[in-house]
Amino acid sequence: MQVLLSGRLDGSTHREVELLSRLPAELRLIGGLAVMCRVGTPHRTTVDLDAVARDLPRYHDALARLALTSASGGQYHFADHLDLDVIDVAPMSSQELVRQLSADGPLSDLELNLIAHTWAHDTATPIDIVAVDEHRGVRLAAAPARLVASPAGLIAMKATTVSLRASSKPEKRASDLYDLGRLLVSGGLSPDEMDLMPTPLRVGVVERLRGWFTTDAGRDRTYRDVRRFDEPRLDLDDAADAVEALGPG
User: Fold this and answer.
1) Residue 44 pLDDT > 90, yes or no?
2) Which of 42, 49, 87, 52 is nearest to 178 (CA)?
3) φ and ψ at residue 13, rounded to 5 degrees
4) Which of 131, 177, 180, 207 has its CA at 20 to 30 Å from residue 46's CA atom?
């Protein structure tokens, strides 16, 4: 599969794809650039890269050699004002993680988020990502066979992250809800893909999506949150229809 991302020479998309091509191929792309790849149309501006990895210390030296600076917790700063955040996922499958965490009782929001990131890592698929000039159509940079989280993987991570966002960062909650809506409407998501999630994760994700996109109070708040993003405009009716098509949680 190949996706073409339009941008400007030396613009953020050009620089991100160029950096991505030099990163270890085992990293799984998540975040704004991954959403752009999955929705296939222009999306909100993103100025950094986000990824997940299993056993991050294996890749730290390679990343640190490319970066200008690195910090604990998987944070790397590169030339041209680009940042990379890498989240280290569990050293086991998401199903095994569910079994271990469920042994102590109901899963917390944080535990569901850990499961979501692990599942997204393990279900990522390769995409040839190409940045092209938005005016001339010429190739600016290419990152072949990059592993990118699936639409369901991105939805799982974002749906379980919103409740963990600090109230001091409402813009992060708003951007997550906007990304969720765009993935529901334009990400090619199917109920079958959602059915592959571990059951507690699927139930939790669908429950949250219904709360944000189908209930009257939830839709009103979501509308207030996402209306700051107007390119392209998110149709909440289409998002609600997509949630209903997922069936019960």
Assistant:
1) no
2) 42
3) -65, -45
4) 207
